[in-house]
Fold this sequence. Notes:
Layout: H1 2-25, H2 30-41, E1 47-48, H3 49-56, H4 64-73, E2 76-79, E3 88-91, H5 95-121, H6 126-158
Antiparallel strand pairs: 1-3, 2-3
Amino acid sequence: MGGYHDRVGADLTAAAERFALTLASYGLQRMTARVMAALLFSQRESMTAGEIGEQLGVSSGAMSGALKQLTAMGMVERVPAPGSRRDHYSFRDGAWATLMSAQNAALTLMTTAADEGLAIAGDDTPAGRRLTEMRDFYRYMLDRLPALIDEWQRSRRTDGQGRL
């Protein structure tokens, strides 16, 4: 019986490391990506920094910045652990919708940057054409993303797949 659980644990750890590499290739700091993946793929409800560090083969101090960043992003949260004096962390329910909602600020910044560039370059220039496409794309995303997130959250509540 232990063999099955050991194999599943090893397979999950390997999958988490592959996911962390993917996240890092898209710009997330490597340690932050590894900590995020460890919590996401964990069979436990929560883990201490020491437990995450043991799984990743790093010190808990090496992860403090990653845990702070993931907490600030809304992906990870500190959770109570009765009888424990250590902080426990878990991957937050609703984290993906929170992350995408936070992207609205980035979309707004991109739209503003395009508008600023257009005001300087003008519409009928090579830069103006590129900046118009950029502005239009981000406006389109800004118009639709909030409704998609709301729809996602409603579907999770009605089909019983999430705890929002």
